[in-house]
Structures are given as structure tokens and as C-alpha cells.
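Hi Y.,

Following your request, here is the sequence exactly as I used it, all 441 residues.
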Amino acid sequence: MSRRSAHPGKAVTPRPLAPRARRIIRLNNAFQLLFNLLWWMPVFYAYQRQAGLSDGQIFGIQSIYYIAFCLFEIPTGLVADRIGARNCLRAGAVVMTAANLAPLVTPTYTGFLAHFLAIAAGRSLTSGAASAYLYDSLRAQGAGEHYLKAEGQARAWGLGAKVLCWPLVGPLMDLAHGAPYALSAVSAAGSLLCALVLPSQAPSPRVAAPRRRLAALHDATAALRTLRATPWLALVMVQGVAVFTLSRIGQVNLFQPVLLHHGIGETSHGAVLAAMTVAEAVASARPQWLTTRLRPSVWVTLLSLAMAGTLAGLALGGSWTVIALLCLFAAVCGFAYPLQRKLVNDAIPHGAPRATLLSVESIVDRAVCALAAVAAGAYLAGGRLDTLLWHSALLTGALMAVWHLALRRSARSRLRPGPRPFGRTACVVQQGAGGTAPTVS
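Below is the corresponding structure, written out as C-alpha cells. Let me know if you'd prefer a different format.
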């Protein structure tokens, strides 16, 4: 009996990577590293305040950014399925390069608003396309089982680069005040070079179908039909809202206010963010450690609750405790993100408009983040940071409870007697609960 058949419940050993698949993974790692290497991240709050912006203007721009991201995701997901994920990555890199130059040209409220609007456009062009390109390309090379590790490694490499670069931001700003934005533009230009040499993809069955010349509206309609016919996909997307929102709000929007609230000065923010990034990078590089013990969907739920609990703990600890909790929060995010991406990709049926569906998920995530940013600004304006942290934890717990109730109800509906044999139905439900897309009748 082979090892694979002898242990059906365990993860099988992946097959060796072909040279083309290895090249795809390496270029994807480089693209993700350079595209997401935003040198200005540790100092953008202080940078904008030095430029004369108020807290209301800064958080207002962030809220507009999330809303714009939602609006941009609608056409860019359709564009990715029309022109191909690789071309979408190239367009996103061009836009990101220009976006990072905007604050250097116009360091005013208008310039920073244009900067974040362009960032939203560039990231929306790549948010679904990057994952879709990697997933489809590896599957085409017969290396689909390497996707989870490749997704985690790309994130880990990007985080590792930030650890090395972010502590240098302060000294570089002393030499040239606009250095963080100039270096970010150079990095984005490097990601464009990576996108230009990415291997081409084989046409998917959906693109090769007779309807390929229909308008992009066909892709949107197909995506909505897929969501309606695949309840598990919708549930997984809802589950991801907690992961993305908590990660974004905790690590970007509230990171500096939390440190300042606990008396940690701005000169130490880069070092704290670097420590957080190390923790996230280590976890992101090994998400497969968790999948052999529990189903990915269960892990994502537990990790979401851990993130919420860590945020609540920030309201109770002192300076060093807060730093330790922020690093723990980052590590949990590192484990959760690749697992969530795999859950969503596995839930998308073969032949469905993958990039469009991933954009739908991103739209929901950013829409919730836009609301969260507005709420965070209101809480901070009233001096209620601790209350905000507690409410975020309680809301996440309630969301996870509702999600599991919906999951159990969906499972019971599938187990009702029907034209198909019970055994086959039970198998489908078990696969869906583990993260594999259920078969749609």
C-alpha cells in the first residue's frame, strides 16, 4: 500500500517542482516583495502631520482610500479576466510607481489624497489578479499542491524585506525628507520588471469558450451565479472579512495611535513595526504547519478570535506588553492570511471567473474597512481608543458565531434527502467544511 493511500487523512508529500513552475514562484516572490515594499508605511502618519494635515484629514483620506478600493475592484476584476492576470499585474505596477511619486510632487492634502487614490487603483489591479495568476499557473504546471506554500513564501519574503528596510527610513529621511516615497517608487518600478518577464498563462476553458467576445458584464453575471450556486464560497468570503479588517485596522490604522497612547515615541515605531513584521514573516512562511491538525476553515476561525483577543489585550497592558501583543497579533495574521486565500481559491469552481470573484471578496473586505476607518476616527476623536479595541473584539466574536450558525445550517440543508445518494452528499459536505469547493448540483 502506498504512503498516500495508507494515510488518506494526512497531507501528502508534494511532487517536485518543474523548472517553469519554480520560475513562476520565484518571479511571483520578487513581484510581491517589490510591489508591496512601501518605505513610507512606518512614517506616513507623522509625515502627513508634518505636511500640515490634521488627524481628521488623515483618517478621512484613509476612509476615502477604502471606498475607492471598493469602487476600483469592480472594473479591475473584470479587466483581469478579460486581458489576463499577467497584464493586470503590469498595469498595477505602473500605477503604483506613479502613485508613490505624487507626494513628492504635491505634498499637500490634495497630493496625499491623489496618492492614496492611485494606491487603491494599483492594488485593486493586482489584489485578485496576483492570486489568480499564481493559482492557475501552478495548476497548469501540475503543481497546484504547492500553491499554499508559495502564497505564504511570497508574503514572508515581502515581510522580510520590510524588516530590513523600515529601520532605515528614519536616517534616510534625515538625508532626504522625501526618500521614503522615492524609494517606494523605485521598488514599484522593479515589480514592473518582474511582471514583464512572468511566463504567459494557458487560456482557461472559460476564456476559450464561444462567449469569449461578450462584454465584461458576462463575467460579472457569471460571478454572481457562482456565488449563488456555491454557498460555501460566500461563507468563506464572509469569514475572511474578520481576518482582513482586523489585520488592516490593527497593523496600519491603529498601529501608531496605540503606541503613542502607551507612551511609545515615534522614534521607536520603526523598530516595533520591524519586530511585528519578523513575527508575521515567520508565520507566513509556514502556514502548512496548521493544516495537518484541523481543517483550514476551523483554523481561520480560531485565528480570527485570537486576533480579536489580542486587540482587546492592548487596552490592558503596559508599554512592553503592548509591543509583545502587537508582535503576537502580527504572527497570527501571518498564519491566517495564506490559509484564507487558499480557502477562497479552493472554493471557486473550475472555469468560473476567478479574478472577478477574488475582486468581489476584496470589495467586501475594503467596504467593511471603510466603515471601520470612519468608526476608528470617531472613537479616537473622542479619546476612546480602549473602547474601540474592546468593541472590535466583541464584534469579531459575534461575527464568528453567526458564521458557524450559517455553516451548520448550510450543512443540514445539504444532508436533506434528495435525488442523490446520501453517501455522496455527506462527502460533499465534508469537503466543503475542510475548505474544498462543494460540488454544485
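The chain has 19 helices and no strands.

Thanks again,
Q.
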